[in-house]
Specification:
The complex is a heterodimer of chains A (about 170) and B (about 850). Chain A is an alpha+beta fold. Chain A is about 15% helix and about 40% strand. Residues about 165-173 of chain A have low confidence and may be disordered. With about 850 residues, chain B is an alpha+beta fold. Chain B folds into six domains: about 5-145, Up-down Bundle (Four Helix Bundle (Hemerythrin (Met), subunit A)); about 160-250, Alpha-Beta Plaits (2-Layer Sandwich); about 260-420, no CATH class; about 430-490; about 495-670, Histidine kinase-like ATPase, C-terminal domain (Heat Shock Protein 90, 2-Layer Sandwich), CATH 3.30.565; about 675-835, Beta Barrel (OB fold (Dihydrolipoamide Acetyltransferase, E2P)), CATH 2.40.50. The longest helix of chain B has about 30 residues, at about 430-460. Classes of the chains: A alpha+beta (about 170), B alpha+beta (about 850).
């Protein structure tokens, strides 16, 4: 995070101390937000090790200073068009609450956009939507200037589907 | 200044568990008992009791007290060591363990079991030792009766008057200018006085008000004076105290009538260095009769100048017993050169002397007990408790101060010893694991730097590059050494696992009615703590199995011309980066016919299969196989050898069996030395690097397409050394694209798991290297077919293949066709693989 960003952030903090901060990122032309406290770090794209027989959106695993973390391509997770990874491609390393433990995971996004401080009354509930990205993964919608930002429930998303901890496998051990 | 004891509780518990282990192993050795073994057991029990008392685990302390008393009888030869007694003591060890666990927030100890063991212990007590039995918290019928008779006999001879005075002053007695010691002086003018202070009301030192009085006294006055004479002395304080004056002629007569000895025992300061313990002698004396011990502390230096290895105390002991002087001297036989000792017959004048001394010392001693030893409760077991006879009131604590100081000196010297002997420290395993992780990172970084250095050397030359190379080489060596050293921190001798087996063998052989000798060798062989924790249960199962199924009954053995005593051998040794544990019995060996029939019945094999003996023996590791005719308490509780094999293989190990009918069988377990590092074969599949654990690899071969025969299209079998081995194409299993050019031959790594071989088809073989195993579960989840991941020299991640999981995925479990492919290899090491090109 650059100095100016930090400056912006602290400015915002001064303006609205009651709000919660969100980091927003871009997928295609859409802007999504995650709770900034969940963000551990931002990394540039580096090749990952493929894990066989996993869904396409799970790109593989990465060495994060000795820890092995899985990396998910959010574009593919949401069924958006695949694009190649370039210099702006970012891996957001997030901490995911998985019930019994906290897991560190990476999500691949097109680019990081902004940080926002949002108070609860600015966030509108998400309407019922179906499809790949269903409303479970969305905590709310925010109108910021003329854009719509989708706030994501990162725990729901990153514990869903193939990413869920296989309880059975755990108990077997 | 109050000390928070809670911080020591965990240390106490750990030490107690160690003590219990010592007790257990020593008890099992007791068949070949020498005095030292019993003393060892006794000391362990004694420490546990003392600690338990200090930390307020009264249940533990009470129970251990009974055990200790019994041990003391064994030690003094009052009782003979018999197998039932040893069993009883072993059971008590279990009870103490359960009680300690309960004290440590564990599950409640089974009160019924504990109390039944305690009752039996108390029944075992006896052998005429009245004092000890009387001092037991729970009455013991037999000895109790004896005690009563003894008292009755003595009471008949009473003539001189005896006054029993209970004097409990109010706390503010001193403030009105009264001084108890003056009253005692006055009482002494009337006759012979025994003073027994009771300090149960004594507060913590930090809360002690020097102007208050916390003590109370039980006084025994031997005098012909009247009650008025006595109460007159207390006249001035009667409003400020509770006073009970009773006449009790009987008790007095006992003291008076009994013959005895006065022993002045002044050991030299160096006595403890020769390994002698005054408290043992005092206890030995208490076995001879009832004992009054007065401790002289005149020579005690300042606390700061106190050398815990030295003894500053001396004792005056009144022994009321009919024993001869020789008996007394015998107790001190071993120390007679290291002390000055006088033994004189006890007569009234001397007794009065001794009482005077006691009076003098007791008040003084009380204070020193307070300052020196906060653990007043931890009085030694066989506290002579003469108060019981002489006073007849429960004045137990009163005599304590005389014993507390020897105890203190002893415990100090005891603690000093191990500190000097062992230079080990207790460290949290988390800290060690963190250290190992960090070193793992270092190894990866070092490998990465090494790679960069090599690349640099290729593109440019010069002295700087050379120096860099040299430095990197050194770094590599140092890193490797460091890694080995750190790994060794986690290594513990396998005796930690083996130690529990003598007990197991003892119990199980007892139940089975078999005579078994357990021979343990190589118990110093070191193994990773994690591996060790997990190997215990499979080992227990294997040993039970050997005892239950392997060894015959004594009759059968004699009939077979073998010695009656069966033999089970445990042997641990290192071999090629693995630890091998052999469990050998000289029993009947595996019954191949029975196994074959059973496997047939269970449908594990088909009737047309021809199997060699060793192939048949391997069948015992099959799921659902158990030859026990009836489900016994010992074996066959639904957990079979298949679970043993699975557990061992989940640790990256192997188990195999050799058997010679009529001569016994050997189960051989091989385990990796550590779970944190693994020797791996790097292979390429598609464009990723994977790691196959080297232990699983039997051979790697380059097979031409002729030796690969298809079955039903996709599945293929490799004809290799007269065996058909199923192949798993990892490319297709991992759903990776097929190679463009159809290869003439394929690289196959033949791996083995659960006694079954499988060929893994890979694209390329790289080198072999040690890799640090990283869990996939921490941030992701367990994936079938992968044991974990590691980080390669270039910082990239490589997945480690799990052969068992791959087999499960690739072969859809073991079909009848693959089950046929048993093999007879009893591999102990990795040294057998090689590339056949």
């Amino acid at each position: 995070m650059t100095d100016t960003e930090w400056q912006q952030q602290s400015d915002m903090l001064e303006q609205k101390t009651d709000g919660q901060q969100y980091l927003s990122f871009l997928l295609d032309d859409e802007e999504y937000g995650v709770d900034i406290l969940r963000v551990q770090e931002l990394r540039g794209w580096t090749p990952v090790t493929h894990v066989p027989d996993m869904p396409n959106y799970l790109k593989g695993v990465l060495n994060l200073r000795g820890a092995i973390i899985p990396v998910v391509d959010l574009r593919e997770r949401f069924g958006l068009e695949k694009i190649g990874y370039g210099p702006t491609t970012v891996v957001i390393v997030i901490k995911v609450d998985s019930g019994s433990c906290e897991r560190v995971m990476g999500i691949i996004v097109d680019a990081v956009a902004e940080t926002y401080t949002l108070s609860a009354d600015e966030i509108q509930p998400a309407p019922q939507i179906g499809g790949v990205i269903n409303s479970e993964f969305i905590t709310g919608l925010v109108a910021q200037e003329d854009k719509m930002i989708v706030l994501m429930d990162i725990d729901e998303l990153m514990n869903s589907d193939e990413l869920a901890i296989d309880q059975l496998a755990n108990t077997e051990v | 200044m109050s000390i928070d004891l809670s911080q020591f509780i965990s240390t106490f518990l750990e030490e107690s568990y160690e003590g219990l282990e010592i007790m257990e192993s020593s008890l099992l050795d007791l068949d070949s008992a020498d005095e030292e073994t019993i003393n060892t057991i006794f000391r362990a029990a004694h420490s546990i009791k003392g600690g338990a008392g200090t930390f307020g685990f009264s249940e533990v302390a009470d129970f251990t007290h009974v055990v200790e008393t019994l041990l003391d009888e064994l030690r003094s030869g009052k009782q003979d060591i018999s197998p039932p007694l040893v069993n009883l003591l072993l059971e008590s060890v279990d009870c103490i363990k359960a009680l300690l666990e309960a004290a440590q927030d564990g599950p409640e100890a089974d009160a019924d079991v504990v109390s039944s063991v305690q009752t039996r212990l108390e029944q075992a007590l006896g052998g005429g030792n009245i004092e000890q039995c009387c001092s037991e918290p729970v009455p013991e019928s037999n000895a109790q009766a004896e005690a009563t008779t003894a008292v009755d006999n003595q009471s008949a001879a009473g003539s001189v008057g005896c006054w029993k005075i209970t004097f409990i002053p109010n706390e503010d007695l001193l403030q009105s200018g009264h001084e108890p010691s003056f009253m005692f002086e006055a009482l002494k003018d009337l006759g012979e006085l025994k003073i027994l202070p009771n300090k149960s009301a004594l507060p913590k030192f930090s809360k002690l008000n020097p102007e208050s009085i916390y003590l109370s006294w039980n006084l025994v006055l031997i005098s012909d004076c009247s009650a008025e004479d006595v109460s007159e002395i207390f006249e001035w304080v009667e409003d400020e105290c509770e006073l009970v004056i009773e006449r009790s002629a009987t008790e007095e007569s006992q003291t008076k009538a009994e013959p005895g000895w006065v022993i002045h025992f002044t050991p030299f300061e160096t006595l403890l260095e020769t390994g002698n313990e005054p408290s043992f002698m005092l206890e030995a004396l208490s076995d001879l009769g009832s004992v009054d011990v007065t401790t002289r502390i005149e020579n005690l230096p300042e606390l700061s100048a106190l050398d815990p290895e030295k003894l500053y105390l001396s004792w005056v002991i009144n022994l009321y017993s009919e024993c001869s002087e020789e008996d007394v001297r015998e107790v001190f036989e071993w120390v007679e050169d290291e002390c000055s000792l006088t033994v004189t017959a006890l007569d009234s004048s001397l007794q009065a002397d001794a009482s005077a001394v006691e009076t003098e010392v007791s008040a003084q001693a009380d204070v020193s007990a307070l300052t020196l030893d906060p653990q007043v409760d931890t009085a030694p077991v066989s506290d002579p408790e003469p108060s019981l006879e002489t006073v007849g009131v429960p004045s137990e604590p009163s005599i304590d101060q005389s014993k507390v100081k020897p105890e203190k000196t002893i415990s100090a010297s005891k603690k000093a010893k191990p500190a000097a002997e062992s230079s080990s420290i207790r460290v949290d395993t988390d800290k060690i694991d963190a250290l190992i992780n960090r070193v793992g990172e270092l190894v990866i970084t070092q490998a990465m730097l090494g790679q960069v250095g090599d690349e640099l050397a290729e593109i440019s030359a010069g002295s700087e590059v050379e120096r860099l190379q040299a430095g990197l080489d050194q770094l590599e060596r140092n890193t490797r050494d460091l890694q080995e050293d750190v790994m060794r921190v986690r290594m513990l001798p396998i005796s930690f696992v083996f130690n529990r087996f003598p007990r197991l063998v003892h119990d199980v052989s007892g139940k089975l009615g078999k005579k078994v000798e357990l021979v343990i060798t190589g118990e110093q062989t070191e193994i990773d703590k994690t591996v060790m924790e997990k190997i215990g249960d499979p080992m227990v199962h294997l040993i039970r199995n050997s005892l239950d199924h392997g060894l015959e009954t004594p009759e059968e053995r004699v009939a077979a011309g073998k010695p009656e005593m069966g033999k089970v051998e445990l042997d641990a040794y290192h071999q090629g980066g693995f630890i091998i544990i052999d469990i050998t019995d000289d029993g009947r060996g595996l019954n191949t016919e029975k196994i074959y029939q059973k496997a047939l019945d269970k449908g594990l094999i088909t009737a047309d299969q021809v199997l060699t003996d060793s192939e048949i023996n391997e069948l015992v590791f099959k799921p659902g196989f158990s030859t026990a005719d009836a489900v016994s308490d010992l074996s066959g509780r639904g957990v079979g050898m298949d679970v043993v094999r699975r557990n061992i293989e989940s640790l990256g190990g192997h188990v195999s069996v050799r058997s010679e009918p009529g001569h016994g069988s050997t189960f051989s377990v091989s385990l990796p030395l550590t779970l944190a590092i693994l020797d791996g074969q790097l292979v390429r599949i598609h464009n990723e690097t994977y790691i196959i654990p080297l232990i699983a690899i039997v051979e790697t071969i380059l097979a031409d397409s002729n030796s690969v025969s298809p079955i039903a299209g996709e599945n293929k079998l490799l004809h290799f050394r007269d065996e058909y081995i199923p192949l798993i194409n990892l490319r297709s299993l991992f759903k990776l694209p097929k190679p463009e050019d159809k290869a003439e031959s394929s690289l196959i790594a033949i791996v083995e798991n659960g006694g079954q071989k499988v060929g893994l088809v890979v694209d390329e073989l790289f080198g072999q290297q040690q890799v640090v195993i990283k869990s996939l579960e921490v941030n992701f989840k367990r994936i079938e077919g992968f044991a974990g991941a590691t980080i390669l020299g270039d910082g990239s991640v490589a997945l480690i293949l799990d052969v068992a999981g791959l087999m499960k995925r690739g072969l859809n479990f073991e079909s009848a066709a693959t089950a046929k492919k048993r093999n007879e290899i009893f591999r102990n090491s990795v040294g057998q693989h090689g590339v056949v090109a």
